[in-house]
Design brief:
By secondary structure, the protein is an alpha/beta fold. The protein folds into two domains: 3-100 and 249-280, Leucine Dehydrogenase, chain A, domain 1 (Rossmann fold), CATH 3.40.50; 104-246, Rossmann fold. The protein has helices at 17-27, 44-54, 78-83, 102-112, 130-141, 154-167, 180-188, 232-239, 248-263, 269-280, and strands at 3-9, 32-38, 58-61, 75-76, 88-92, 95-99, 122-126, 146-150, 171-174, 191-194, 220-223, 243-245. The protein has a six-stranded mixed β-sheet. Strands 9-8-7-10-11-12 form a six-stranded parallel β-sheet, sandwiched between helices. Helix 1 crosses helix 10 (269-280), helix 4 (102-112) crosses helix 5 and helix 9 packs across helix 10 (269-280).
Length: 283
């Protein structure tokens, strides 16, 4: 009998996860299928109960349900409790257990794709939303030496700064956008992460930092945006001699971690990567 997994979100038509996972199931000869479920916020509780009843092995959770789903689960592992968001659920004999593979996917991509280890380094986070929270928590857990957070909404940046500081013994600070403090942090950073949608299709001409901003040649820029494959921020970083990576690696690797949670098998990462690129029209 075919085993089913899927993804819930609203909207959901843009997701590349079905292509990634179904390609992985096919190459491993698994009789599994990954289905998309478009679920409006007001229908979330009903849909989760339905998926539990139908016996799905598990499902991914995307915007806008990552926080709202937590009270509907039977158990949540330690990391998503700290992050405050779940993106992967496993059905363990009727018990729904929540995980967060976003942060782990980011760290895996950072280490594997960018050959970057966070321990002892200085980082600047552009943005303070849900994705930023997962990344900030993981950087702190990996032993980042210094983390500076900025956001157009200063209160959000301050709240995330306080939150990370309450859980981890790391130097975490908030900086106003366009401030001298932020300019200095960007210049000295070993790692700059764009956790905002600025530069994402169809607004490829936008950049989350001023083009005159100094970026050191020692810096690695990691843009969580993956469409377009090379954002304006990435181009700017490369022009200044820095290295730059997009978020496709994070997308694929968080999916691979979820795949293993469900199947208990190593994910064919190369196959998932190829399927994601084909779906996005990336050569």
């Amino acid at each position: 009998m075919k085993k089913l997994v899927g993804i819930i979100g609203y909207p959901i038509s843009h997701s590349v996860s079905p292509a990634m996972h179904n390609a992985a199931f096919k190459i491993l000869g698994l009789d599994w299928e990954y289905l998309p479920f478009e679920v409006k916020p007001e229908d979330l509780e009903k849909k989760v109960a339905e998926l539990r009843e139908k016996g799905l092995i598990g499902f991914n959770v995307t915007i806008p349900h990552k926080e709202a789903i937590i009270p509907l689960l039977d158990e949540v592992t330690k990391l998503p409790k700290i992050i405050g968001a779940v993106n992967t659920v496993k059905n363990e004999g009727g018990k729904l257990v929540g995980y967060n593979t976003d942060g782990a996917g980011f760290i895996e991509s950072l280490k594997t794709d960018a050959s970057f280890k966070a321990a002892g380094k200085k980082a600047v986070m552009l943005g303070a939303g849900g994705a930023a929270k997962a990344v900030a928590v993981m950087l702190a857990s990996e032993g980042i030496k210094e983390l500076v957070i900025t956001d157009i909404d200063l209160e959000k940046a301050e709240a995330l700064t306080d939150y990370v500081g309450s859980y981890f013994d790391v130097s975490v600070m908030c900086a106003k956008q366009k401030s001298d403090e932020l300019k200095r942090a960007l210049k000295e950073a070993d790692l700059i992460i764009n956790a905002t949608p600025i530069g994402m299709h169809p607004k490829e001409d936008k950049c989350p930092i001023d083009e005159k901003t100094e970026i050191g040649k020692q810096t690695t820029v990691f843009d969580l945006v993956y469409n377009p494959p090379e954002t304006k921020l990435m181009k700017l970083a490369k022009e200044k001699g820095a290295r730059a990576f997009n978020g496709l690696g994070m997308l694929v690797r968080q999916g691979a971690i979820a795949f293993t949670i469900w199947t208990q098998k190593p994910a064919p990462v190369d196959v998932m990567w190829k399927a994601a690129k084909e779906t996005l029209g990336i050569k």
